[in-house]
Amino acid sequence: MNIQFRENQEAVSPLTAKTAIADCDIHPARATRTELYPYLAKRWQHHLEVYGVHAYQGMMEGPPYPKAQPNASRRDAYPPEGGPQGSSLSFMQKQLLDPNNVQLGVLNPLNTGQGIRNHDLSAALCSAINDWQIDKWTSKDKRLKASIVVGNEDGLSAAAEIRERAGDKNFVQVLLLSRNVEPLGQRRYWPIYQAAEEAGLPVGVHAFGFGGNPITPSGWPSYYIEEMVGHSQCQQSALASLVLEGVFERFPKLKMVMIEAGFGWAPSLAWRLDKVWQRLRSEVPHVKRPPSEYIREQVWWTTQPMEDPERREDLFDVIKWIGWDRLLFATDYPHWDYDEPSRVLPAGVSEANREAFYLGNAKKLYGIG
Fold first, then answer.
1. 3-class SS at 73?
2. Which strands, in side-by-side order, build the sheet including 203-209?
3. Are 305 and 263 in contact (CB under 8 A)?
4. Which of 90, 72, 195 is nearest to 136 (CA)?
5. pLDDT per residue as tens digits for the range 21-47
6. Is-contact 238 228, C-beta < 8 A?
7. What's the burial of 282, exposed, middle or buried (CB within 10 Å: 0-12/13-18/19+)?
């Protein structure tokens, strides 16, 4: 969200309608509950009808918090032909891709087979989601590329799904969520990182998830706004785990993309990790370099949300530490906190950095020519 920049028209980047962009966080949705059935074996269709889904998240079906808007989405994003927001390719083209000149759109489906206790069902649903992404989206519009959804709590089946899809040009990254049964650096997830590194695919870690744990370190909060702010805390824990468990040291070619949790907290987290690592490094001898070095070399960050400090110079300082070559633009379409491309960057950004931010970094990371 960029409210302050929107209010100050003179401080807005001079992005024009003709500027090509990459949108690195688009959420496609299923039009109907049974839309995945053509991609599921009869056994799993029967299982869903008779037994349903047994999720780690015990509170309710769907997101752990009711949203202010249905599906956490824009009210104007309902397709004219019916169905939930994000479920129509033709309407997505009309509302997002065409008017914003989106040259590359990365699909990140949510509410998939991730976070399900039955690991075989989880793997089947994730594979079905990946087939569905090809049939309904990427094969119909070459601007769209998919993320490989995997049954993340079963590292072996997740790795098998990645290897099955490796080399398929419909896919450009592997998709994980930040809330899992254990922190993302734990060894149960290592087969995922190994397979992704072998395939040359970045691993995107999107906010949310269904690990069954409270979304804050001190228990369940009262308000949705606490969940929104808590995304960054969860991503910080995930990133610290990845560094300190030695994932980046063990998989030096692995690329991680932190999605929809901001990035303003990255420098302070890295500084704190570096300071503590200097004193306690004997406990983690497998972490051979200061944590900040791994983070700056192997982590990319999407915008939406992007922090809005009072002084734009403060934002530039943070980005300078992260690196202009590490930021990826995202709208989060069709969700309610969607970022309008022309309103995201303040004035004062060089043409080279603006081009890299809106398009160049994403094309390079995802290997799009």
1. strand
2. 21-26, 102-107, 144-149, 171-179, 203-209, 256-259, 299-302, 327-328
3. no
4. 90
5. 999 999 999 999 999 999 999 999 999
6. no
7. exposed
